[in-house]
# Entry
Amino acid sequence: MKKTAVILVSGGMDSALTAAIAVKRYEPAFMHFNYGQRTSCGELKAFNDIARYFKVKKKLIADIGYLKKIGGSALTDRNIPVEEADLNRKSIPKTYVPFRNANLLAAAVSWAEVLGAQKIFIGAVEEDSSSYPDTTKKFYKDFNRAVKSGTKKESRIEIVTPVINMSKKEIVIQSYKYNSPVHLTWSCYKSNDIACGECDSCALRLRGFREAGIKDPVKYKKNIKW
# Structure
C-alpha cells in the first residue's frame, strides 16, 4: 500500500507535473489554495480537472483570503496592474505575493501531520527565483529546518521540490513523458477564460513550449513569440 503525500496543486503546469511525478510512488492528497488571486476561478477549475484526471479521492481546498486583505501584489489587488512580461527582469515583479509560499506550506504541514503524510510536494521552479524569493532551493532548505523544529518528532515531514531545477522547456518535455495533463492546466495571471499571452507566466510557458518544439494546447488572446 502506498504512503500518502500532500501535493500542492495550483492548477499550473509545474504543479501538474509535480503531481504526475508524485502519484507514481504515493497516494495523493491534493491541496489547493484560494488567496483572493485574480485567476482563482481558472485555477480552481484546473485543480478540479487535474484531480479528476488522476482520480484523486482526498482533496482539500483552503481559503486563505487574508493574503488579499494584506495586499501588496498585482495578483491580489486589482488597483495594481499586472505588468507585461519581461523575461529579462531582475527586480521582483508586482505579481509577487509577499511570503505566499510560506503560508501555503504552513497549512500543508498541518494537514500532513493530521494525515500522517511524511512528504509534501510543491511545484516550485528556481527559474523564477530571480524575481520570487520563495521559489529558491535555499528557501525550501530553510523551511524544511523549520518544519523539523516545529512538528512532532515522529512526523518526519519533508517538503519535496522535484521540478525545482528544470527550465520551462524541460517541464514541457517531462510533462509529456509523465503523461501530465498539460491541456487541463492554467498559468495566466490575468484571465480566467482565455489566457492573455502577455503576462510573465504566459510568456514563460509559451517560451517553454516553443523551445521544446511542442504546440501549447491552451488558447491565448495574444500568442507572442517570447
